């Protein structure tokens, strides 16, 4: 298996522009997670899906952020409009654990390094 | 808020043994996971303790005491490549999600 695939790997954009990050989870996994990592805040969970349905979006910082999972093999995280403080590494992860289950080994993608100027 | 605590930094020398502690503020958590992240890379799963006691995987061991809400990761025969951040994410009653936090940055010196 190719693992979790994320694109782009690097993104540089200007403040105010729309940014779309993409993720393809491991085939057969039913949970998908979006994280953001910065030096200041560590690794934060933004949102997660189970069976393509958003279960918990309490980590989404504000309305500028939105995430979708139209099918089991694809998810997007969109920031519109982007701001310099959104600069971070964004990770997507997937797992085969049941929502609410105690064992949730997560497999992370390589991340997207976003820089907003 | 964050319900677990781990040291922010640990330094050790090559060949030594180091223990990274993880303390939960809440009780009754399901189990303890550990993840490793090298600088610039993706977090990767190391171990999971469902029950109390010690789990060993090569040079790495993980321990859990549910009654004490405490666990640790033990790294033996340290190598330079072990320099990384280590996370014990909180999965207690989180509905399938893990809360990672800042992690512990381990620096292995020659």
Kindly list the characteristics that best describe this protein.
heterodimer, A: 117 residues, mainly beta, 7-stranded mixed beta sheet, 4-stranded antiparallel beta sheet, B: 110 residues, 5-stranded antiparallel beta sheet, 10 strands
What's this entry about, in short?
The complex is a heterodimer of chains A (117) and B (110). Chain A is mainly beta and 117 residues long.
Structural features, described:
- The complex is a heterodimer of chains A (about 120) and B (about 110).
- Chain A is mainly beta.
- Chain A contains no helices and eleven strands.
- In chain A, strands 2, 4, 5, 6, 9, 10 and 11 form a seven-stranded mixed sheet that branches. A four-stranded antiparallel sheet of chain A has the order 1-3-8-7, with no helix packed on it.
- Chain A is globular.
- The termini of chain A are far apart.
- The mean pLDDT of chain A is about 90.
- Chain B is mostly beta strands.
- Helix content of chain B is about 0%, strand content about 50%.
- Chain B has no helices and ten strands.
- Chain B has strands at about 5, 10-15, 20-25, 30-35, 45-50, 55, 60-65, 70-75, 85, 105-110.
- A five-stranded antiparallel sheet of chain B has the order 1-3-8-7-6, with no helix packed on it. Chain B has a five-stranded mixed sheet with strand order 2-10-9-4-5, with no helix packed on it.
- In chain B, a hairpin with a 4-residue loop joins strand 7 and strand 8.
- Chain B is globular, with a radius of gyration of 13 Å.
- The mean pLDDT of chain B is about 90.
- Chains A and B meet through strand 4, strand 5 and strand 10 of A and strand 5 of B.
């Amino acid at each position: 298996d190719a693992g979790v695939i994320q694109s782009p790997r690097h993104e540089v954009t200007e403040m105010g522009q729309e940014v779309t990050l993409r993720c393809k989870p491991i085939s057969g996994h039913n949970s998908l997670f979006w994280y953001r990592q910065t030096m200041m805040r560590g690794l934060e969970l933004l949102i997660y899906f189970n069976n393509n349905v958003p279960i918990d979006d309490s980590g989404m910082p504000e309305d500028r952020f939105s995430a979708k999972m139209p099918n089991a093999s694809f998810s997007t995280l969109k920031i519109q409009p982007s701001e310099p403080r959104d600069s971070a590494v964004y990770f997507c992860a997937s797992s085969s654990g049941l929502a609410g289950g105690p064992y949730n080994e997560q497999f992370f993608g390589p991340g997207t390094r976003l820089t907003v100027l | 808020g964050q319900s677990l605590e781990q040291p922010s930094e640990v330094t050790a020398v090559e060949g030594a043994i180091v223990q990274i502690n993880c303390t939960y503020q809440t009780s009754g958590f399901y189990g303890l996971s550990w993840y490793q992240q090298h600088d610039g890379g993706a977090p990767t799963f190391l171990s999971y303790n469902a029950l109390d006691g010690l789990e060993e995987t090569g040079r790495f061991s993980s321990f859990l005491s549910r009654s004490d809400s405490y666990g640790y990761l033990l790294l033996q025969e340290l190598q330079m490549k072990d320099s990384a951040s280590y996370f014990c994410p909180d999965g207690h009653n989180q509905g399938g999600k893990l809360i990672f936090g800042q992690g512990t940055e381990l620096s292995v010196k020659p």
